[in-house]
Amino acid sequence: MSSSANSPPSPELSLDRPCVSFVTPNKGKQLLSLGYYLFKCNKATSSKRYWICMENGCGVFVHTDLNNKFLSITGGHNHVARPNIIEMKAPKEKMKPRILNETTSITKIYDEEIAPAGVAESVAAQFLTVIKYCLSVAFCLMANRRASTCTELFQRLKHVAKASGTQFAPTNIVSDFDAALVPVVRQEFPDAKHSGRLFYFIQTVHRKMMCLGLNDEYAQCQETHEQCKQLIALSLMPLQEAERQFKCFRNIASESVEDLFTYFERQWISEKVPLTMWNFHELDHRTNDILAGNQIIQFKMKLVIVDLAHVF
Predict the structure, then answer these.
(1) In the chain, what are the domain boundaries?
(2) Each residue of 192-221: pLDDT tens digit?
(3) Nearest CA to 260 among 210, 196, 223, 219?
């Protein structure tokens, strides 16, 4: 791609002028989309707009004129592209005004907008699902994420519930894939079903890909891209098929992703994180963006109003 008619090609750009597009997320500020990467406007002058990659620590900049016509790009991405995020933006933009202005149920709006958008099943699974009768009753500011701290937290919540004349006995627990939390949940709530979030499972695998230096190859090599997506797709397969399919994928995997498969086997297949925790095949809701960032505990019990002053 040349910056002018007579200048030589820039090493950062392709020979064809990149196609940029724009999306408007929930916060209302326009984002630039280029090559499955998103950029936010960093500053504007009387003649140009300067866009910076949305990923923290990434030093890629895109320049456009005031009419949003592409001018140039500098730098190289230090993270993998996330085409799924781009695919999700368009239907989300259509959903928001309908949810705000129509009396149609949110679930029906989702169904009506996702199907025509033609997004892949793996992408559709990442849309938030409306969960009925789910209410957070306690927010806990933790000093650390050690197992002893998690144990103390659960003990105090049990104490508060008992003082209110009920029992804190979750049947389903949803959390991040925290190494300290998993054994504590197993100890404190042996009969509960403990599962993770699809969003954080995908994010964790993507971050490992970045650490292994696969970001460029993932974005540019179709074979590598497909093999990485196959690993992530294991989370949506029937539980009894996941381990067998992993072995099949590994037997035909290219050498460039061998380290990624080794990590995946140690972390996810060999029970460091139980397979049942990251398998989402039979779950009604596989992720929940509204409650992301909180430890979500769904339990079948009467609502307990927790006085946080007595918890900590």
Answers:
(1) 1-78, 83-124, 147-196+287-311, 198-278
(2) 888 888 888 888 899 899 899 998 888 888
(3) 210
